[in-house]
Amino acid sequence: MHSIFIKKADVRIWRAKLSTPFRTAKGQHDFLANVLFRVELTNGTQGFGEAAVATHITGETIEVTLKHLKEAAWEVQDHSIAAFPSLTEKFKERFAGNKCALAALEMALLDAMTRVKKMPLWRAFGNRVRKIRTDMTVILGDVNDAENAAREILKRGICSLKVKVGGNFDMDLRRVAAVSKLAKRCPIYLDANQGFTAVQTLKFLKELDKLKITPALIEQPVPKEDWEGLKNVTRNTKILVCADESVSSFEEAKRLIKEKAAGAINIKYMKTGILEAYEIARMAQQHHIQLMIGGMMETPLATTASAHLAAGLGGFDFIDLDAPFFMAQTITRGSYVNKAGVYDLCGVKAGIGVTPQNPVNLRG
Ligand SMILES: [Mg+2]
Q1: What spacing in Å lies between the alpha carbon of 162 and ligand 1's midpoint?
Q2: pLDDT, position 1
Q3: The CATH number of domain 6-118 is 2.130.10.10
Q4: Concatenated DSSP letters for 31-46?
Q5: 156, pLDDT greater than 70
Q6: Residues 215-244, mean pLDDT to the nearest whole number
């Protein structure tokens, strides 16, 4: 390992069509536009990383992510791959407002390093691999849209549904009721994407209770900076509250634990980078905080990389890695998730196991 160096690294914009715009209370994705980061080692091994740029959620842009990753591509060159993870240390601060760039850099280096070691990425996180099963999202829309989406999801064989709420209170109630009627035996996760206040959330859950609907959890009911609101919801409902946007760093995860602000955390590489995501997950587990693994609008490269963490470390109760099901185009090679949402990484020989399908045509 010490004699293997990073020969070169490059960066490209990575685009794909979506089968449907992905609508949440915070905005929508009309297409996938991410940044692909590639490293090539002196022994010929390649590693790939993806930055999923979610401008309407994090404020990150393609331009800044490209600029940062171009800098990183230049700076990691000629370093030994064995210098990872200290090699990425200096980028943590520099990419503080652009964590998806950090995630892409770490992903590519981890991919390359585990390929050199001829081990699947999940082994970096644990000593055995578990099959994990993703939910699928019912995006914002009307009742009809929700019913159609739920029918499609159930037809695939997926039996946990994440319903986006936080748009229109009454419409959301009717949507959740319609989905739960169709998916009686399936757990339903609600995700408000910061769209409610604490009072609205508690009222919403009460209304659902009247309809005898018990969601498995409610994710990020209130604006991310509204910690009092988050705690208010957590203290006043029996439904599990999961923090997503409120926890975008190790420090915020620590605060959540200390203040008992929620019972679960949605871990996403794009919010913190990979190494910090792992640290958050470990700390949360020590404090009996439940875990979800999630993502932004990502190709199977990044979703599979995330699946490696959940499958290797274990203890993730909620899997939300359904982005590949919203893509209208296949732009990656290697698939470890089936139509029914099962990620089975047993067959991954080395690295993430997924690579860009046609890197030469992706120059952006
Ligand atoms: Mg969420």
Answers
A1: 9
A2: 75
A3: no
A4: EEEEEEEEEEETTS-E
A5: yes
A6: 98
DSSP string, 159-201: --EEEE-SS-HHHHHHHHHHHHHHTTTS-EEEE-TT-S-HHHH
Calculate how far, in angstroms, residue 220's C-alpha sits from the geometric centre of ligand 1: 6
Average pLDDT over residues 25-49: 92
- Domain segments of the chain as ranges: 6-118, 123-356
Cα of first residue to Cα of last residue in the chain, in angstroms, is 32
Taking the centre of ligand 1 as the mean of its atom positions, its distance from the CA of residue 42, in whole angstroms, is: 40
Task: Kindly give the distance from the C-alpha atom of residue 193 to the centroid of ligand 1, in angstroms, as a whole number.
Answer: 6
Q: Prior bond to 85 cis, omega within 30?
A: yes
Q: Which tokens sit at 112?
A: 């390359």
User: Is there a common fold for 6-118 and 123-356?
Assistant: no
Per-chain mean pLDDT for the chain: 95
CATH of segment(s) 123-356? 3.20.20.120
CA 361–ligand 1 middle distance (angstroms): 32
Distance 58 CA to ligand 1 centre (A): 12
* Ligand 1 centroid – CA 338 distance (Å): 23
